[in-house]
Amino acid sequence: MRVVVDLNRCQGYAQCAFLAPDVFAMHGEEALLYDAEPDDARRTDVLRAVAACPVRAITVEGAGGRWTADRVGASNGA
Amino acid sequence: MALDGSLERLRREGHIVVVGASLAGLRAAETLREEGFTGTLTMIGDEPYEPYDRPPLSKQVLLGLVPVDQTALPRRRAIDARWRLGVAATALDMAAKRVALADDTSVEYDRLLIATGVRSRPWPNELEAGLDGVFVLRTTDDAARLVHRLRAGPRRVLVIGAGFTGSEIASVCRERELPVTVAERGPAPLVGALGGVIGEVAAELQHQHGVDLRCGVMVTGLDGDGAGRLRRAHFSDGDTLDVEVAVVALGATRNTEWLAGSGLAAGPRGIACDAGCRAFDVRGIVCDDVFVAGDVARSPHPLFGYQFLSLEHWGNAVAQAEVAAHNMISPGERRRPHLWTPYFWSAQFGVNIKSVGVPNMADQILVSQGSLSEHRFTAAYGYQGRVIAAVTFDQAKWLEFYQRQIERAAPFPLPFTTVDRRTEGMRPVPAGFPDPSVPSHGPEVTVSGHSPTDQRVTFTPA
């Protein structure tokens, strides 16, 4: 699955780091680092983190019925 | 309201070409589909990878916490596009509505979105830039090369330029316990973007974390050994330093060369467009079928005196792409202006730095909450008696409040009390920005006057 956090929105509430510690981690007191392509085994944790984020900064793809990436051709993709 | 026939046809069966397959290009493509565009969509990108996220490259990727090829951007929806990846656009023929590509093919469009972004400014001496051990950091390939070399444990890393990217790289080196020297031409790190007052705090952070920070000096040369490996750096103060790795972090240059001769108002400062993201041609007339979004765009902003702003910001790429895509398939009266208030973040030396507004337009600064010495504060920036920007160090939660002050042109200094106001926050002081006529790699926001065809800019390195 794929994750991106809008770090402009993020205010360092750290809910995600509590709920999915293998994917999200605080770096210092407020900065957030995260794994952008966590293992599917973390899906439940990540979805909890998405739901718990007070500023709704986390976008996920490939989880909870969201659409999965289409194929990308190397140079000539029809 | 009925759409006119040609727009209806465009939405149904037109061909939209997006040049630039990174954050802005992807979000624009998603918005086009979201808003009902059912025609053909072609995505052209010079890198052979599907759209990926760049901010992690100088942070978790360089730290080795996340694999370098695992920052692909999540998709908001299917975009059903024809992908032409690994092939750069080389020319634009606006009369024929055609984009030429590096593989000698071409693509015709009904509407074009240009989102070609920026690239790292290379070390100006080509021979020295080619030494084994000299790096830049912009793409996933750059990150792969650099992280590989950092893993090998070089005896010393030299970072040339202490803007945000350079400072983040230095921070990673210290976290990896690598000795690092930072050379900055200006008087302090981040000075071009945040000014001298905050620059002093950034310098303190670097010193505290064991960075050999050298401000007011330029790197004048890089030496290689017989095998072409970087060995030594020379400084403008006469000093020399043995280094195995040098990372050139002298800012970015806009990818507009392919538009030379196209008739678009494109130059080293970007492509001028109106607030609706329509590109200007060199006559200063907006094009109806060429749009611009992301780092490569510069567009007028009413909050900042209608000056043209270029914003190398993640959030701007997303917001401008959404507006551009909407406007590409909407009739005039439904078009929207791109009025995003600039926002960005940086994580370095364990501190979360965030900014809203345009700090480098400011003449004064006031530490309105917290304290500089604690490295935890909120600073408001003033320009001609109004609030124009704010920066937080580990106080992100206050930033939205300041955003609203900026958007309503609140007076500066702030006429009300703020939480945790200290004595140092009682009186504004000069913000300490360097002379803007001296070219700098620092600002990630460039304010470039009112002229859509302003192409005068020269860069003096380091």
UniProtKB/TrEMBL annotation, chain A:
Pfam name, any one: Fer4_13
Phylogenetic classification of the source organism: Bacteria, Bacillati, Actinomycetota, Actinomycetes, Kitasatosporales
Cofactor(s) this protein cannot do without: [3Fe-4S] cluster
Superkingdom to which the source organism belongs: Bacteria
Nucleotide-binding listed as a keyword: no
Iron-sulfur keyword on record: yes
Protein name (Swiss-Prot/TrEMBL): Ferredoxin
Keywords, ordered alphabetically: 3Fe-4S, Electron transport, Iron, Iron-sulfur, Metal-binding, Transport
InterPro entries registered for this protein in UniProt: Fe-S_cluster_ET
From TrEMBL, chain B:
Region (Disordered), start-end ranges: 425-462
InterPro entries the record matches: FAD-oxidoreductase/Apoptosis (IPR050446), FAD/NAD-bd_sf (IPR036188), FAD/NAD-binding_dom (IPR023753), FAD/NAD-linked_Rdtase_dimer_sf (IPR016156), Reductase_C (IPR028202)
Ranges for domain Reductase C-terminal: 343-412
Species of provenance: Streptomyces rugosispiralis
Residue span(s) of domain FAD/NAD(P)-binding: 15-321
Superkingdom of this protein's organism: Bacteria
Descriptive protein name: FAD-dependent oxidoreductase
Biased composition (Polar residues): 448-462
Keyword field: FAD, Flavoprotein, Oxidoreductase
Necessary cofactors: FAD
